Amino acid sequence: MSSNKTGGNVQRIHVGARTLFTPGARQLVKVGMRNIAVVEHKGHLYAIDNACYHHGGPLLNGDIEDMGGHPCIVCPWHSYRIALDTGEGLYVGIDVVPGAAKPVPAVRSKGCKQRVHQVVCDGGEVYVLVDLSGPAIESDSYANMALANQEGAMAAPRESGGRRPLGLHSGMRSGQVLQHTAPSRAGTSNPFSTAPPLLVASGDRRHCSPVPELTVSCCRILPVSEGVKEFYFHRADGTLMRLGQPGEYIELELPLKDADGGHLRRKWTICEVNKKGALFTLLIKARTANPGGASTWMHNYALHSSLHVCQVNGHLTHAHHARRLHELQGRVLWLTAGIGISCAFAALNQSFNEDLAVMPSQARGALHALHLHTDCAVAAVAKLPDLLDLQRRYADPTAAHTYQLHCYITQGQAAAAATQTYVTSGRRITAADIAQRTRSFFGDGVRFLSFVCGPPAFVNDCTDALLSMGVEEDLILTEDP
């Protein structure tokens, strides 16, 4: 495989002889870090970035099907359909036709999600024209990620149906990363750490061996609730080894001094990934009591600032505890206070809006989530409209997937809250509330997994309440220290 410039920003990549591309054949080529899958389908050649825009799945191993007049490659991880000719994400929705007996299925587009490239044949040889000068596309996040592009280029196409031996990337499952043993502070194996931090600052020896330095830049800030904003970040420079999962935390280095005179480091929960073209988003609440602190600095100065990434880690996700949740038939309790709700939203949004939407029906496990939240005011509850929408869509107690939210609002809003059945006003949550609502939702004496997120006093009180109810200690998960 060779490369040469054709003018402007276009690279002309030589792939090989056209005669080698028999029906259904496919070949992996490499342009810098970026892996590109070249696929033959019904006499045509297509080139598409190999790492799927959703979670980086290897498209080279996907089946191909026609959908809405487009040849679509099906991601082998989550069955996302991507048009080989346009890069659009396609799905089957429904159209309600007046007078029709039932809704009519209809193919719909999510817009261009995956970067595709032009393929030309010249003198019997195949070339891919790579032009990255246009606007960013969601799949670019994974095209620039080292872990999603570990496999080397193929010398020749493989035959249709002749599956390539699994490599470092294609042999991984969704959410799986390189497995290293990460000892806890006590020197014993940490049962919650299924993946060590793979984003480590250059020269940082506190964790695994260092990787090339990564910086991210805040490209957008949007208000979410009273005092809370959502910060959108994209990669500014360096190598992205893996994208964190919603619910994990990311540690950023800020241009502020800590108590020892070094740069201040602060951890925030990853809220969503691949949202509106951003690598990830964070929910950050301004701390009025600490005007010189990290959160206030982010609200005032983060936009367009480049920040150093120290690590990504954490265990407060449903994916990290999938085996335990399966054993408990999907029963999970979230106890949150203040901005601690960001952990719950990240996990619940991922499970209900992402995973359930793409998993085949036979692969979907049960999920029954009870969420009890404490805050100072209804207007301060971050992502409340989204959570209420989840509750509306998953309200059926007899269904396999259910979600129930109840908020305890400390400020007196009795009149305003009278019509809001999801609100108890004028007080904090109590141990009696937790016991009563878990019995009502899960049943008496039924085991469930508990996540507790919020200020230290809240976490301690809720943990004590759960233990007094007989909940096993290993079924109570709290925020990382």
TrEMBL record:
CDD domains: FNR_like, Rieske
Keywords from the named record: 2Fe-2S, Iron, Iron-sulfur, Metal-binding
Cofactor: [2Fe-2S] cluster
GO molecular function, one term: 2 iron, 2 sulfur cluster binding
Residue ranges occupied by any Rieske domain in the UniProt entry: 13-118
UniProt-listed InterPro entries: FNR_nucleotide-bd (IPR039261), Riboflavin_synthase-like_b-brl (IPR017938), Rieske_2Fe-2S (IPR017941), Rieske_2Fe-2S_sf (IPR036922), Sol_Rieske_ferrdox_dom (IPR054716)
Keyword match Coiled coil: no
The UniProt record lists the keyword Membrane: no
Protein's name according to its UniProt entry: Rieske domain-containing protein
Lineage of the species this protein comes from: Eukaryota, Discoba, Euglenozoa, Kinetoplastea, Metakinetoplastina
